[in-house]
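Morning run. Coffee first, then this:
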Amino acid sequence: MTAFPADRTVIVTGAVSERGIGRATADYLAERGWNIGVIDLDDAACKAVAKELAEKHGVKAHGAGANVADEASVRAAIDEIEAELPQLVALANIAGVSSPVPYLELDSTEWDRVININMNGVHYATRRAAESMAKNRLGRIVNISSVSAQRGGGTFSKTPYSVAKAGVIGLTRATARELGEYDITVNAISPGPIDTDIMGGTLTEERKDELVKDLVVNRVGTTRDIAAAISFLIGEDAGYISGQTLNVDGGLYMH
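And here it is:
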C-alpha cells in the first residue's frame, strides 16, 4: 500500500457552478487539505474559483478551462494543472448535463451532446489522469453516475442521461479492473435527488416534499452529502474499495 504524499492534488471537473456538486466538493476537499485542480468550461471562471479556494483554505489551487467532451481540451487542462500543483493523487469526474427531452422527441444532436459530456468526458479525464497515477503507482478516481441509471430514469432527466450514467458504471468497473495493478482505485457515486440546478432549477418546498415520499430519510440530498462521500472514497483509508457504486440517495434505490 502506497502512502499518500503530504502535499497531494485532486482534480475536480465541473467545479465552477455555485450550486453544483463540483463546487461543493472542491470546497469540502480544500478544507481538508487537498490542493485543487479546477476544470470547467470557462478558463477565467476556473482560475477565479481556484484563487478563491486557495485564499479561503490556504491550499494550492489552479484552474484550467476545458470542454470535457473534447479529449484534446481535457488533456491540455490536466497538463496545465499538473505543471502548477503537487502530485496528482485523485480525480473527481463531476462535470455533467441534464436532459429532460422525452424519448419520442429526442434527436441525434441531443443524444450525442449528453453522451459526449456525461460519459465520454469521464473517459477522457480518467484516461489522462490515469497516465500520471500509473507512473506514481497511486491514484483514486471517483465518477458521478446517477440513480437514473439504475432505475431507468424516473428523475428530471430522461433516456440519454440514464444511458450515459449507466455507461459511467460500466466504465468505473472496467477501469477499476485494468488500473488496479497500478494501485489506482476507481469507484462511482450514484446520487439520488440532490438540490442542485441539474434538477431543473432550485427545488421548491413542494417538489422536495414530493421527492421525499420515495425516500427512507426525511429530506432530499445536498451537495455536501455527495462531497463527503467523494472525500471518503479518495481518502488514504479507502484503498480496498474499488469497482463499486455507492448510492447516496436517501434509500431511493436499494440493491
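The radius of gyration is 17 Å. Good start to the day.
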